[in-house]
Write a structure and sequence with these properties.
Length: 233
């Protein structure tokens, strides 16, 4: 497909982020979002649930975590599962259940293929630094359930078996057929435009390449802050 039909197909699927979407994402995450190239999934009301980030940030840093869960109600619910030890249980099952393990490898491969496609259509191109590196512990471990749930929401049911399980497990707090947005984030005050968080929030970034990228991102953020502080002085 040439560029125009791809854009139209994305638009029809509600994946092209509007200014209002980016504003909502910044409010949901309480920091300004950057390099969001698509909306991975939406609430029934239309609000973003998942931010799809380019595989290379505009700063040049490789970014393996394509699907970032943004909705506070879902992130909180998934955090409860993590706190209750669901990841340990999943890791044990991955060790003993070869069918599950195979499906999880397939999810990893699907993630990488999607990321390549997103890189191609967002103009990022290939990102060799993170070749074969997905996120959340895939393909052999579960290190971050938020990543798996973000993947499941963006890819749809049947792609990531453990993300799908986690979504079922949060059903008492969130289901895809209902809107849980009211009161879930600040809609009154100005949307965050400067990153005041002390650390870059990451939902995974466990692998060495990602950790290096994260350190570089923190360094860049610190340098930018120092420059801003100097400008203020
Ligand atoms: Zn909603």
């Amino acid at each position: 497909m040439t560029e125009q039909p791809i854009r139209e197909a994305l638009d029809a699927a509600g994946r092209v982020p509007s200014e209002a979407d980016l504003d909502t994402l910044s409010r949901q995450l309480n920091r300004p979002v950057r390099d969001v190239v698509e909306i991975g999934a939406r609430c029934v009301c239309g609000n973003p649930l998942v931010a799809t980030t380019a595989p290379r940030l505009s700063s040049g840093i490789p970014f393996p975590t394509t699907y970032y869960l943004s909705h506070p109600v879902i992130t909180a619910a998934v955090s409860r599962l993590e706190a209750a030890g669901l990841m340990n249980e999943m890791n044990e099952r991955l060790g003993g259940d070869s069918i599950l393990a195979q499906a999880y490898v397939a999810a990893h491969e699907s993630y990488l293929a999607n990321r390549d496609a997103i890189g191609a259509r967002s103009g990022t191109g290939a990102v060799p630094e993170i070749d074969g590196v997905s996120a959340g512990g895939m393909p052999t471990r579960v290190k971050c359930l938020h990543v798996l749930v973000g993947h499941s929401l963006a890819a749809g049911e049947g792609v990531n078996p453990l993300g799908d399980e986690a979504l079922e497990a949060i059903a008492e707090w969130w289901t895809k057929d209902k809107c849980y947005c009211a009161g879930a984030w600040d809609t009154e005050s100005e949307a965050p435009s400067r990153d005041r968080s002390r650390h870059v929030k990451t939902q995974e970034l466990q692998d060495p390449a990602a950790k290096r990228a994260e350190r570089a991102a923190k360094r860049a953020a610190r340098e930018a802050q120092e420059r801003a502080a100097q400008d203020d002085a």
